[in-house]
Amino acid sequence: MFKIFLFITALMFLAATASARVIYIDLGNSEEAISITQEDYGYVLFGQHRNTNEIFAITFDKNLDLLKINSIGERFLDRLNVVEKTPDNRFFLSGNKLLLDQAKIAILELNSYFVVLNYFILPVSGADQWVESALLTDDGYVLAGGHRSIGGNWYDALLIKCDNSGKIIWSKKFGGSSDEWFSKIIDGGDGYLCVGSTESYTKGMADFLVTFFSRTGKLIWWKTAGGEKWDRAISATMVNDGFLILGLSNSFTDYNSPLLLKTDKSGKIIWQKVLDLKTEFFPKGLIEFQENLYCVYGNIWNGENRFDVIFIFLDQNGDLVFKKVIEEKNDQNINSSIIISKNEIIGTGSSDNISKDVFLIFLELKE
Ligand SMILES: [Ca+2]
Ligand SMILES: [Ca+2]
């Protein structure tokens, strides 16, 4: 009883001292926020107009005051999925570009002033390919996504290693008789951890697909996890003794909930937990906030406020430390978040509010 009381007190104290600011940017059309990066002068929000495919980069100063909306152009990507910052301050963008009704992997590199430095389509054979996640390395980049062969009806998960000039060093596909794809790649220490979705290697509907590849592209191990219904891994982070893998599941609750999986470094499943908040909760990302403190962010159904952004903080056992729901009228859909200091997170997403198209969300925790 005493223990429970202490836990609730700590929870209330921490929750009461998390403050949030939401800043809407009116872009006048239908836009999607893709990513946020931290710069010397402030922040950059990358997004895409849904109708025209125009990519834009909005700069903000450190007080989150808008500096400029920069248009990158409409022709580069039909679907922007990835924005990464290179060590020499370039922006690396990818996703897919439709050519003759087939999705192709396009790479777009910009300098820090958003001038196009490089743009090309990766020469990958097959019908459709796309990138959902990229990992920049010292000697190039590794792309993770999906692939469909010419005449094929199903997707395979796809992993491609390129050098800095965009030359393909190796590429790997992973799949069975139904659909697979990767949603996230992270550096796994001595290789690459790629997580996503499998429909081939499951008795029911989709399961988590968790794979580990060597740096030369050899599949070292793979695992699936989930229940009878839909389970899809979307994010992961490395921990001291293995990996935490986050996904979406409706196998264990009557609504969508985050499913968190802990594996050791060889892929053995240590535990799995459903983060059941008794309402629809669509997780979008998992980040290490502080040592042994992890943040899952996403969107939660919150009654008359409709969807709201939620940040929940978990210890290394996946147990709830505290949570913060940011209540705003109408729908908010967070897409991406980064840690900007030991007690601050900034995220970005899209809102269905009329004339409130994309937003920044700033969360500060005070102890
Ligand atoms: Ca399943
Ligand atoms: Ca809302």
Outline:
This protein has one domain: Methylamine Dehydrogenase, Chain H (7 Propeller). Helix content is 4%, strand content 61%.
Bound molecules: calcium ion
Query: Count of helices?
Result: 1
Number of structural domains: 1
From the spread of the alpha carbons, the general shape counts as globular
CATH T-level topology: Methylamine Dehydrogenase, Chain H
CATH architecture: 7 Propeller
User: CATH superfamily assignment?
Assistant: YVTN repeat-like/Quinoprotein amine dehydrogenase
Mean pLDDT, as a whole number? 93
Q: Just give the CATH class.
A: Mainly Beta
Number of strands: 29
Strand percent estimate: over 45%
Q: Report, as a whole number of angstroms, the end-to-end distance.
A: 25 Å
| Radius of gyration from CA coordinates | 20 Å
Low-confidence stretches: 1-13
Q: Class by helix and strand content?
A: mainly beta
Order of helices and strands: HEEEEEEEEEEEEEEEEEEEEEEEEEEEEE
- Specify the helix fraction band: under 10%
- Largest sheet, strands/sense/barrel: 5 strands, antiparallel
